[in-house]
Design a protein that fits this description.
Alpha-Beta Plaits, 4 helices, 2 domains, 11 strands, nine-stranded mixed β-sheet, about 210 residues
Length: about 210
């Protein structure tokens, strides 16, 4: 494996663009956190989402992971307005229509306890008479703002979205705004991700950070 390649995971905060170029002073960019030359995100995470972002300077691996044939799993913790019922969860699991596209089957469950995570800055909107709940959603695709559109389609808008894992990679030990290089075993695993289904990965309901 070429030693000049870098592989990094970053715990992206809310309000940070998944790019190094500044388009507007409204948002921070990766340049404000990662002083490593010539690495680029594999995929993206919306500016208003938080969590795990993978970066590398290995263009071949970037292209490979972007190929839908690999379908590697991405797990999110999603805070939604109100408490989804069994019917809504079933719809998310089997697929919902967003715009002109029907989502693939997904692993979705209601978390019985709120995940142990820090507060968001700025905090989510709070309405005294409207409860919230947390879902754990594992997808094998990544359409634009897909998770938010899925929960909205079943009547439970997303308030907060945190990606906690990509395939076998997790945020273990990282604090908000921190990054680290991948271990040799993590890199090897990335290079050996199979096609058709990726790696089974279940985020725990205990603290990841």
């Amino acid at each position: 494996m070429t030693s000049n390649y870098r592989y990094i995971i970053f715990y992206k905060p809310y309000g940070v663009l998944s790019q190094f170029t500044q388009e507007t002073p409204k948002h921070s960019t990766l340049k404000d956190y990662i002083l490593v030359p010539d690495v680029y995100p594999v995929g993206r995470l919306d500016w208003d989402s938080e969590g795990l972002l993978l970066l590398t300077n290995n263009g071949q691996l970037q292209h490979r992971l972007a190929n839908p044939q690999f379908g590697h799993k991405r797990t999110y913790w999603v805070q939604v307005e109100r408490i989804p019922d069994a019917a809504a969860i079933k719809k998310l699991q089997t697929g919902v229509k967003i715009q002109d596209y029907r989502t693939r089957p997904a692993e979705v469950r209601l978390l019985l306890e709120e995940p142990t995570i820090g507060d968001r800055n700025p905090p989510i909107r709070f309405r005294k008479n409207v409860p919230t709940a947390w879902l754990e959603m594992t997808l094998t695709e990544g359409k634009n703002r897909q998770v938010r559109r899925m929960t909205a389609a079943v009547g439970f808008p997303t308030l907060r979205l945190i990606r906690v894992s990509i395939a076998h990679l997790k945020l273990d030990g990282l604090q908000l705004g921190e990054w680290r290089d991948l271990s040799c075993s993590e890199i090897e695993f990335l290079h050996n991700l199979p096609k058709t289904g990726g790696i089974a990965n279940k985020a725990k309901t205990s603290a990841l950070f």
